[in-house]
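Late entry, evening session. Most of the bench is empty. Finally got around to the prediction I had been postponing all week. Sequence below, unchanged from the version circulated by S.P.
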Amino acid sequence: MPGPDSLADEPFSYLTRADGTIVIRYHGAPVTLLRGRAADRFTTRLGTSDSAGAQQLMARATGNFKRGNERRTP
């Protein structure tokens, strides 16, 4: 039985800097930077995504994030 969707409250956001670098944030805290090709690829994929898809894309772009085996608080 799958648990609640941890991305439903939209914890991720991003900021594009003047130099083209993209900062991906989790609850306001920066977690990763995308530059060059990775930033271009992210921007392209983001353009075709809805809100839920954008959250998934940002979660994947952070790399090793939320594998599903984290402990849940009772």
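Two things to note before I forget:
The chain has two helices and three strands.
Residues 36-47 form the longest helix (12 residues).
Will write this up properly tomorrow.
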